[in-house]
Design brief:
The complex is a heterotrimer of chains A (298), B (315) and C (339). With 298 residues, chain A is mostly helical. Chain A has 12 helices and no strands. Chain A has a single domain, classed as MetI-like (MetI-like fold). The two termini of chain A are 19 Å apart. By secondary structure, chain B is mainly α. The termini of chain B are close together. Chain C is α/β, with parallel strands linked by helices. Chain C folds into 2 domains: 8-94 and 178-266 and 274-338, 3-Layer(aba) Sandwich (Rossmann fold), CATH 3.40.50; 95-177, Rossmann fold, CATH 3.40.50. Chain C has helices spanning 50-58, 84-90, 102-105, 112-124, 130-143, 162-174, 192-209, 220-226, 244-249, 254-262, 301-305; strands at residues 8-19, 22-34, 39-43, 65-74, 77-78, 95-98, 180-184, 212-217, 229-234, 237-243, 310-313, 316-319. The two termini of chain C are 42 Å apart. Classes of the chains: A mainly alpha (298), B mainly alpha (315), C alpha/beta (339). Chains in contact: A-B, B-C. At the A-B interface, helix 5, helix 6, helix 9 and helix 11 of A face helix 1, helix 6, helix 7, helix 8 and helix 10 of B.
């Protein structure tokens, strides 16, 4: 009962406008999409929305609660919490989006190779993917960051490495089941090249599930980055990662709980938005998939 | 079936060995002097030499890997840097706390999540079902460490109902339990939401099948149909999900342990990274991987054993 | 239609489904009766209401279905309006039902023995000891043709072949000696050999237990081999009823004629297979006149205005204006408008 068991079905071609309509029609989808759009707005217009420079310290004003000057108060260095949270959105997405895209591309290549070439290449790749998946994402990240050193760039690399195998599996399963299709044999008999078969038959079947996995993985990636930064092995200060805000706020939680509350809520709302959107997309493309669920990812 | 078990065991073993290789090679993945990578640029010469000797970094790489694997299978994970104590014993002290935490969270998740899911399936589209639906989505999306932080602030700091730090000791079970409550809840929240949804969906799907209609047609009582005929079928994927999610659980446990300053393999791992105590880092990661592989194996096999159609294949 | 009281007596049965605020009639004015020990066939194409009829008889209409009018009497007892508990006691006890697909009719995770015991326990309560119940179940399994029933009592459904599973379900149905068995497409999922065996089994069951059987099928050939009397359904109504020999020898309703003509036979070798042009009218757009008018070879304008009554004709019944002297149909039957 893994995703690998579902046979390839011809996907309904769902053009953009119809897709949008379907998503918005469902309350979960509407809410999720709104949240994601708001987040994107915050990312793009951060300098306009943030009242202060996120790095601007003002020691006399440190550790204050919410006030007229500072919407959510200040942290231990007097920096405005609200501004930091806003810029934190940029950090979160700046890590998550490239990481997930990178994982998708790597996974795609690996899965394609495994499924299409078969033989010992396939077996070897499966063993490698299984091994990587035997490490909980956070634990793998910690191990790698120990030798790579803590930085934003390394966090992205680490997420790519730990998320890629699941994309690899999905692609491999799709390739294998598409390959079984008699019409592929027919195409080969007619002399179609490998590239043509991949491009015309395999790729379109893959687009929809990839899309969905992407939407569901972004919140996971955001959470992983926040967690790693919280532990001190991710993004380094003074970059305003939500995870860092959480950890700094945690140290001073008895003075003011607002950094923890603010960053915590920011994380929760973000993951909620993306997850709802992802689940709605999954329902739209193939209601059958929602029953299988996904294991062991977040 | 027997053949499948053997194949699966072999695969698990292969994965463990490969993980060992990976961990042994870890220091060499990045260009530069391994010792400098481990200890940082400001390491003293004396310490560097000791490390180099202890980790056998002068030997050819494949020998390092082979030794590591060989010793690991014998239970020897090396000596730690700080106290020159066996890594295995350090892990051995920390691991039980983590396992207890994991077990309690799972028990909590199962004890709350599954009944919720069954209830929702028994009353679909009722207002309670809808509330549970909305709630479970929120539960799924709360990262456990955020949940832990919130719980800590609310119940330990603000209201001072539960302790905020440590695990208590085994000699005082009640105290130990008190220290367990908040961390276990933090870990369980995500799972409760997830299980409730899974069980609900699974039950509803089973309830729509022909054999349930047959049971109805033969006049069986509704409660019998629901709890015996339907649940038995619906629960099978749940067991597998729990096992496969174990790795995920451990990953979240790392955070929860750090937040609540609980002793455990997670805290050990994070502390060792901070103190650059590399052998402990490597050993702890390996132990976690082995546990995850075991859990996956159990999940996979139990799923096959629970479903008579798969268990008795070929009879 | 004998002097003594029929076992099952259905009068003017009307069943509606409530869908999106509208009520769609799936069964209209269905009437028939069955004597004890009789095998009664119900024939019709998909969508004619056969399944709705069987669900209504056993009280298992879906949540949005409702018997809006008419009566169902089993042994003189009115079934319509019975409470849930009473209906449940009836099911499996006096009326039993066997579904179409044997591969999915049995719970895959429970041993067949347990399922057989559960059925008995649901009706007999704590009256009998487990040993007795087990013995009865094993006996029944043997009677329906399961070899080594006692050894295989603890096996799971998937360990049996499709034909065997069908027999197990039938055994389950007959455990409590119901007076009426409803078989919904019992042979449709079986191949020719199994089908023949199943036909033999049904005859034997009637002989051994005296159970009346409602045999629902779209397969006319099977019906002709196993049923005593039959009823043809179309678009939620009964359109013809009579004993099987007469119906096959001399079909009355144009629909029945067309159905019989469409059955492939050796004698038609080389000829085109006959079909009935047109489609079954949709539930949401019932017509004013005869439901079959659009597809009927003998249609006349009067048929589009006047809904035909279910009239008696030579010891049989037929819902067709042709046989109703009061309908205004011009005999001999011919097509008025040739377009």
């Amino acid at each position: 009962m893994s995703l690998a068991a579902s046979p390839a079905r011809p996907r309904r071609a769902v053009p953009g406008a119809a897709l949008l309509r379907e998503v918005v029609r469902r309350p979960n989808g509407l809410l999720g999409l709104s949240i994601v759009v708001c987040l994107l707005v915050v990312v793009v217009f951060a300098p306009l929305l943030a009242p202060y420079d996120p790095s601007a310290q003002a020691i006399p004003d440190r550790l204050e609660g919410p006030s007229l000057h500072h919407l959510l108060g200040t942290d231990e260095l007097g920096r405005d919490l609200f501004s930091r949270l806003i810029y934190g959105t940029r950090i979160a997405l700046a890590v998550a989006v490239p990481a997930v895209l990178g994982a998708m591309i790597c996974g795609f290549v690996l899965g394609l190779a495994a499924g299409y070439i078969s033989g010992w290449v396939d077996s070897a790749l499966i063993v490698v993917m299984d091994t990587l998946q035997a490490f909980p994402a956070v634990v793998l990240a910690l191990a790698l960051l120990t030798v790579l050193g803590a930085s934003l760039r390394n966090v992205i690399i680490v997420i790519v490495v730990s998320f890629a195998p699941s994309y690899g599996r999905v692609v491999r399963a799709l390739v294998l089941s598409t390959k079984e299709n008699p019409f592929i044999e027919a195409e080969r008999a007619l002399g179609a090249s490998t590239l043509r078969i991949v491009g015309m038959h395999i790729v379109p079947n893959i687009v929809a599930p990839m899309f969905i996995l992407l939407a569901m993985d972004i919140p996971s990636a955001i959470t992983v980055e926040a967690g790693l930064s919280f532990l001190g092995v991710g993004v380094q200060p003074p970059t305003p990662s939500w995870g860092l805000i959480l950890s700094e706020g945690f140290d001073r939680v008895r003075d003011t709980p607002w950094p923890v509350i603010g960053a915590g809520l920011a994380l929760m709302i973000t993951t909620l938005g993306f997850t709802m959107l992802g689940e709605t997309l999954r329902d739209v493309f193939d209601p059958r998939l929602s029953r299988l669920g996904r294991w062991g990812r977040r | 079936m027997g053949l499948y078990i053997i194949r699966r065991l072999a695969m698990a073993l292969l994965v463990v060995v490969l993980s060992m290789v990976f961990l042994a090679l870890l220091v060499h993945l990045v260009p530069g002097d391994p010792v400098k990578i481990i200890l940082g640029p400001r390491a003293s010469e004396g310490l560097s030499e000791t490390i180099r000797r202890q980790m056998e970094l002068d030997l050819p790489v494949y020998e390092q890997v082979a030794h590591f694997i060989e010793r690991a299978f014998q239970g020897d994970l090396g000596i730690d840097f700080l106290n020159q104590v066996s890594v295995s014993s350090i892990i051995g002290e920390a691991l039980p706390h983590t396992l207890i935490l994991a077990a309690s969270s799972l028990a909590l998740a199962v004890g709350v999540g599954i009944p919720l899911g069954v209830y929702a399936a028994a009353h679909p589209n009722s207002w309670l079902d809808r509330i549970l639906g909305a709630l479970s989505v929120s539960m799924i999306t709360v990262p456990p460490f955020v949940a832990g932080l919130f719980l800590l602030i609310l119940f330990a700091v603000h209201w001072e109902l539960f302790p905020a730090i440590g695990a208590g000791s085994f000699s005082d079970p009640v105290d130990y339990l008190r220290h367990l409550v908040l961390p276990a809840i933090a870990l369980a929240i995500t799972w409760i939401g997830y299980l409730a949804r899974l069980v609900r969906a699974s039950m509803l799907e089973v309830l729509g099948s022909t054999y349930i209609r047959t049971a109805e047609a033969f006049g069986l009582r509704r409660s019998l149909i629901f709890y015996k005929y339907a649940l038995k079928n619906a629960i099978i994927p749940t067991v597998a999900v729990l096992g496969f999610g174990f790795g995920n659980l451990i990953g979240s446990a790392v955070f929860v342990e750090v937040i609540f300053a609980r002793p455990g393999i997670g805290t050990l791992l994070v502390d060792s990274i901070e103190t650059r105590n590399y052998p402990v880092v490597r050993g702890a990661v390996l132990v976690i991987v082995v546990l995850t592989v075991l859990a996956n194996l159990v999940a996979d096999l139990s799923y096959r054993l629970l479903d008579p159609r798969i268990r008795l294949e070929g009879s | 239609m004998t002097g003594s009281q029929p076992l099952l007596d259905v009068r003017q049965l009307e069943v509606a489904y409530h869908v999106r605020g509208r009520s769609l009639l799936a069964l209209r004015g269905v009437e028939f009766d069955i004597a004890a020990g009789e095998i009664f066939g119900v024939v019709g194409e998909s969508g004619c209401g056969k399944s709705t009829l069987s669900a209504a008889l056993i009280g298992l209409l879906p949540a949005n279905g409702e018997i809006t009018s008419g009566s169902i009497r089993l042994d003189g007892r009115e079934l319509r309006g019975l409470g849930r508990r009473e209906l449940r006691q009836l099911r499996g006890g006096q009326i039993a039902m066997v579904f179409q697909d044997p591969l999915t009719s049995l719970n895959p995770t429970i041993r067949i023995g347990t399922q057989l015991l559960d059925v008995q326990r649901a009706h007999l309560g704590g009256q009998r000891r487990r040993g007795d119940l087990r013995r009865r179940a094993v006996e029944m399994l043997t009677q329906v043709g399961i070899p080594d029933a006692s050894e295989r009592f603890g096996d799971y459904p998937h360990q049996f072949s499709g034909g065997m599973r069908q027999r197990i379900v039938i055994a389950m149905a007959l455990l409590l000696r119901p007076s009426l068995l409803i078989a919904d497409e019992p042979t449709s999922a079986l191949d020719a050999t199994l089908e023949a065996q199943m036909i033999e089994l049904f005859k034997q069951l009637r002989h051994d237990f005296g159970t009346a059987i409602v045999f629902i099928s779209h397969d006319l050939t099977v019906v002709s081999q196993v049923c005593d009397r039959m009823m043809v359904m179309y678009a939620g109504q009964a359109v013809e009823e009579g004993d099987v020999q007469s119906v096959f020898r001399e079909p009355l309703h144009p629909y029945t004629k067309a159905l019989l003509a469409a059955v492939p036979s050796r004698n038609q070798r080389g000829e085109r297979l006959a079909t009935i042009p047109g489609r079954v009218p949709s539930l949401s757009a019932p017509s004013d006149g005869c439901a079959f008018a659009d597809r009927c070879t003998f249609v006349q304008p009067v048929n589009r205005e006047r809904e035909p009554h279910y009239v008696a004709w030579n010891g049989r019944r037929v819902r067709c204006n042709i046989y109703d002297p009061t309908s205004g149909y011009q005999s001999p039957p011919r097509r008025e408008d040739v377009s």
